[in-house]
Structures are given as structure tokens and as C-alpha cells.
Amino acid sequence: MYALAPSILSADFAALGEDVKKVENAGAQYLHIDVMDGDFVPSLSLGMPVIRSIRKKSDMVFDVHLMMSHPEPYIEEFADCGADIITVHAEACRHLHRTLRQIRDCNVKAGVSLNPATPLSVLEYVLDQTDMVLIMSVNPGFGGQSYIESSTNKIWKLREWIKREQLNVDIEVDGGVGLNNARTILDAGANILVAGSAVFNGDCAANVKAFLDILNDYNE
Ligand SMILES: O=C(CO)[C@@H](O)[C@H](O)COP(=O)(O)O
Ligand SMILES: [Fe+2]
């Protein structure tokens, strides 16, 4: 299944509910929610009260990307707020295997994210405990950055590995994704595209539709 995950980091926070409805009505299946702690990444974004509020307004798959050091004490609360997928960073978890179990124990899908400099090998003993791998194609912390080209090869290698092991793991790509590079990323083996500025800058309904036209070619 191929899907678009608009990142609300680039939405208008003064009209967040309306922006969420716009992308949902335009057909986006996932909503990507970036949580930043000012420690793991050099920025702060939003947290539980915001997620709880928008959960009441949307039926999209809530894809919560935790850019937090040591997220373990907060997992249950994020699940309770309405997360459908919780993604933690491999670099931020001392006991990644345990954290993935903790997420699945909340009946939520478990994701692992890798920074651009982190090798795929950190997944070796957890890939079978993972529902989604989020390949960061920028250094996390901000929207609107440029796609790091070496990410394409990383996606390719990961998809080959998943196929070889006959696992059912989604590959999501986040950072600098636009209409210009979407097909390259999908051809490499990703099936979920995060897009912040490419969706929310300009006419977001039209932008979502343009992404979905591309994704539909792969869904066939
Ligand atoms: O996690 C992050 C940034 O750390 C992302 O989800 C961004 O919000 C993506 O923004 P664009 O690169 O698509 O503008
Ligand atoms: Fe993100």
C-alpha cells in the first residue's frame, strides 16, 4: 500500500484543524506529526495536547515521529492521544528492542527512524519487530530542507533486505520530498512519502492530489 503523509510541521498552527481537514478531504491517508524535544534535535514543536485535539477532528492514520531523546516514558501517553504508528529514533533509544515491544504492547504500530548518517545495520536484530522504517532524508529538526541524495541508495538496500527476509515492513521517507523526486524515491522501494513544505506551501489540496496521482501509479 502506497500513501502520502503530510507533515503538519509546515501547516498553519493558527488554523491547524482546518489544514488537517484540507489534506484529509483531498485524500491523504496518513498525517505525519513531528514531535521535537529541543535535545535530540535543535528545535521544539508540539506534543500531546495538540495530538489529542486534532484526533477529535480526523480519521487519518496518525503517524507520530518522535524526535526525542529517551522517549520510553512517554510512549503510552502518545498511544492514548490517538497515535496509530509511533516511530522512535534508533539513535535515541538505549534499548531499541525493548522500546519497539513497548510500542506494540500499546496496540500501536512500531516504527524506527534512522538519521542520514546512521547505517542500516542497526536494524539487523530488530527488523522483524518493526512495522515501519522511517528513512530520514534530511538531518531532523526542521522542515524545508533539501533531500540528501545518498538516501535513495539506502532505501534501495533496505527494500532488497526486506524482500530477501520476506518481511512485511513499510518504508517511509521524510525530508525534502517533493513532486520532483517522489518517483525516484518510490522506485527505490519506499511506499510512504512524508511531505511538509511540498504539501502546505501553496494550495495544499492541489498538492495532495498531485502526490496521489503519482502514488496511484504504484498502487495499481
Ligand atoms: O521530521 C521532519 C523534520 O525533522 C519532517 O517530517 C519535516 O517536517 C519534513 O518537512 P519537508 O522537508 O517535507 O518540508
Ligand atoms: Fe518527520
Question: How would you explain this protein's 3D organization?
Answer:
With 220 residues, this protein is an alpha/beta fold. The protein has a single domain (3-219), classed as Alpha-Beta Barrel (TIM Barrel), CATH 3.20.20.70. It is built from eight helices and eight strands, in the order E-H-E-H-E-H-E-H-E-E-H-E-H-E-H-H. An eight-stranded parallel sheet has the order 1-8-7-6-5-4-3-2. Strand 2, helix 2 and strand 3 form a beta-alpha-beta unit. Helix 5 runs parallel beside helix 6. The radius of gyration is 16 Å and the shape is globular. Bound molecules: 5-O-phosphono-D-xylulose and fe (ii) ion. 5-O-phosphono-D-xylulose binds at residues 7, 9-10, 32, 34, 65, 67, 138, 140-145, 174-177, 194-198. Keywords: Carbohydrate metabolism, Isomerase, Metal-binding. Catalyzes the reversible epimerization of D-ribulose 5-phosphate to D-xylulose 5-phosphate. The active site is at residues 34, 174.
Task: Give the topology.
Blueprint: E1 3-6, H1 16-25, E2 30-36, H2 48-55, E3 61-67, H3 75-81, E4 85-89, H4 96-105, E5 109-114, E6 132-136, H5 151-164, E7 170-174, H6 182-188, E8 192-195, H7 197-200, H8 204-219
Parallel strand pairs: 1-8, 2-3, 3-4, 4-5, 5-6, 6-7, 7-8
Helix pairs in contact: 5-6
Bound molecules: 5-O-phosphono-D-xylulose and fe (ii) ion (FE2).
The site of fe (ii) ion has 6 residues, from strand 2.
